[in-house]
Design a protein that fits this description.
The chain has 97 residues and is of the alpha/beta class. 44% of the residues lie in helices and 18% in strands. A 3-stranded parallel sheet has the order 2-1-3, sandwiched between helices.
Length: 97
């Protein structure tokens, strides 16, 4: 099984959401030893702000006519969707204010 963990804090140290998610991840692995944990840290490894509009606009352009930016955005969007679809469970380490 695969646990997709999404961290959104820009803080590596002192992040309450990250600390809570660490506890949950440890507990998950205790119950599911040998499982894969796929991590995405959008607070640190920020997704490009232009990726979504480029990926959407690329839907109206034939593959051969897409710009390098559109091709990159489509590849990123596909990778993100694959991460979600491949996950059996998702752990969101976010804070709602």
């Amino acid at each position: 099984m695969t646990l997709l963990r999404l961290d959104a804090s820009i803080r590596v140290e002192g992040s309450a959401s990250r600390e809570i998610a660490d506890i949950i991840e440890v507990e998950w692995l205790a119950v599911h030893p040998g499982d894969t944990v796929q991590r995405r840290h959008i607070g640190i490894d920020v997704l490009p702000s232009e990726a979504w509009p480029r990926a959407v606009s690329a839907a109206w352009v034939p593959d051969t006519d897409r710009t390098p930016g559109q091709k990159s955005a489509v590849a990123l969007a596909a990778a993100l969707v694959d991460e979600l679809l491949d996950a059996d469970a998702i752990l969101l380490a976010v804070v709602a204010a």
